[in-house]
Amino acid sequence: MGPILVVAEFTEGELSDTSRELLTKARELAQSLGSEVIAVGFGSHAEHAMANADADRAVAITGLGLDQYLPLTYERTLSQIVSEYHPLLTMVANSTMGLDLGAGVAAAQHMPVIAYCNGLHTDAEDIVAQCQAFAGKLLAEVAVPAGGAVITVLPGSFGSSGTSGHPEVTVMAVDSVPGMDVVKILEPEKGDVDITRADILVSVGRGIGDPENLGLAQELAEAIGGVVSCSRPVVDAGWLPKARQVGKSGQTVKPKLYLALGISGAPEHLQGMKDADLIIAANTDESSSIMEVAHYGTTVDILDLMPALAERLRGE
Amino acid sequence: MRILVLTKSVPDLVEELVLDEDSGELLHDEMTYVPSEWDDHAVEEALLIKEDSNADVTVLAVDTGDVDNMLFTALAKGADRAIKLQGDFDLSTSNRKRAQAIAHYVKENPYDLILSGVQAIDDIDGQIPAMVAGLLGMPHASVVTDVRLDGDRVHFHQEYGGGLQAELASQTPVVLGIQAARKPPRYASIAKVRQMMKSSVLEEVEVAVEEVPELEIRRFFKPVAAGHAEMIDGDAEEVAERIVSILKERNLVRG
User: Fold this and answer.
1) Across chain B, how many H-helices and E-strands are there?
2) Angle formed at CA A264 by CA A262 and CA A270, multiple of 5 degrees
3) DSSP B185
4) Cα torsion at B225, A139, A236, A188 (round to 10°)?
């Protein structure tokens, strides 16, 4: 039985929350399969950050320039490690790095990749993965083949036990692979407002339909004392700046009130706002995913609702 | 600079996904297919690069039986050529098999820059651009925006979440999974697409694909909602009234 390999990521020099989740799940599977857990991490802080990881062994990959994520170098190195250790499972988070490494390493190593996993359990002889498909509208149950697979896991799927361990850490020095370099890091756009600090967000999605309707959202935000934010399609359409985007590739927010207007609730969006204290959603489709995380919902047209609400809040 | 854009169609989520509830199989032939949204962005980014330089843009789709309209639409938007990979493919063909077919084609027909949507709604067996790159041993990056040519190198942004990005530069050939184009994807009128159908041809290339690692998908099923919002009934005025009272109960209304 091959080991379970976990690709660790770090936040401010420590194991990220998602990496801890992956290690917790890997430990659970390894115990039931009689296998071991190997953590793999990149950069100068990897050795320290993995010193107390819940793993049997750890491989810290160091080298010039590796503190910054380098797609080509990371992928070639991980591919080499996978071919050496023959893991049954290689677990990576469904982050940008995971999107690069998961499918890329799997293809290079002639293994299948199981993507968007949000559940993993043993079932008699097999390991069974549950994956999110079709923007969360369906789930799939996938058997992990005996020959192994790479699995990309959606953050927040497992929870972390908080257990620490004493892995035997091996430091592996590598040279960066020429061909793809980081030119510069681009700091987040500051924008006119910081949506992560707002108590009330009036958030609009594709259902806003036309940039001209943004005025209604702005009026509502003023009436309620909040700030306008949005989901990814609104930014991609160029209707609002990136600094206003809530979701995995935008900002994670936890306001007292999140008004989701014309937002269907793609997994990428839910990841950024599901922990808001109170979520009220307006969407013409009652079965849309946003209604599963919202406390209150309505199917009335947002173009009617926004002015009606603003009027009442202004006391008119 | 020769640019290849990989496109595919996916079930239209505006309509219901059709599932055989007993077997948990998707009934592909009973669903409506539309171009994958991220691929539309990849086509747009390629056309914007073409406008900035003298790049030549080829659009490719694996022929799953429904791709002609999608390819003619890309031609109508400004792509120079369209390729249809033919072989043993249909709507249920896995992404892994499609990636292998594309890798075979690219090996024989080199391009400098290969763009595709970073993901698709149906790629639980892997994202096509990363797999194509992995199979060909080419450098690649996902979650990419803002692709520009600089001499013989390609500059682009990669997004890491929380608003953080980096600018990267790569040698060619390189494969990039596009998150979003610099501008919203352009529209091609039905008349223009029809005109393309009359005036241009799709190049058909036959590819044979060996056995690839396939996922054993036991079943698809609808998630049991963990919870559901308490629905507020009534017209906009009534709903607004109720929302204001909910906010008042929680001291979320000023004054």
Assistant:
1) 6, 15
2) 115
3) P
4) 80
- Using an 8 Å CB-CB cutoff, list chain A residues near B99: 107
DSSP, residue by residue, B43-102: HHHHHHHHHHS--EEEEEEE-SS--HHHHHHHHHHT-SEEEEEESS--TT--HHHHHHHH
**Interval A192-199 mean pLDDT:** 88
From edge to edge, which strands make up the β-sheet containing B2-7? A180-186, B164-170, B153-161, B140-150, B174-178, B113-117, B2-7, B56-62, B81-86, B203-206
Average pLDDT of every residue of chain A: 94
Interface of A with B in 221-260 (CB under 8 A): 224-225, 232, 235-238, 242-243, 245, 248-252, 256-257
Whether A224 contacts A313, CB under 8 Å:
yes
Q: How far apart are CA B158 and CA B142, in angstroms?
A: 7
Among B124, B131, B217, most A C-beta atoms within 10 A, so best to mutate, is: B124
Model confidence pLDDT, tens digit, residues B29-86: 999 999 999 999 999 999 999 999 989 999 999 999 989 999 999 999 999 999 999 9
Classify strands A138-143 and A14-15 as parallel, antiparallel or unpaired. unpaired
The model's pLDDT over B46-60, given as tens digits with 9 standing for 90+, comes to 999 999 998 999 999
Q: Smallest CA–CA separation between A225 and chain B, in Å?
A: 8
Amino acid at B138: M
**In whole numbers, what is the pLDDT of chain B averaged over residues?**
95
Which burial class, exposed, middle or buried, applies to A316 when counting CB atoms under 10 A from its CB (0-12, 13-18, 19+)? exposed
CA distance A186 to A184: 6
Domains and CATH numbers, chain B: 2-206 (3.40.50.620)
Which residue of B lies nearest to A291 if distances are taken between CA atoms? B229
**How far from A140 is each of A35, A120, A122, B89, CA to CA, in Å?**
26, 12, 16, 22
CB of A68 within 8 Å of a chain B CB? The answer is: yes
How far apart are the C-alpha atoms of B16 and B32, rounded to whole Å? 9
Q: Residues B114, B129: contact at Cβ < 8 Å?
A: yes
Residue B93 structure tokens: 């063909």
CA–CA separation, A140 and A134 (whole Å) = 10
What token pair was written down for A17?
A: 């929350």
Q: How big is the CA angle at A95 (ends A94 and A96), to the nearest 5 degrees? A: 125
Q: Looking at the complex, report in whole angstroms how far the Cα of residue A250 sits from the nearest Cα belonging to chain B.
A: 5
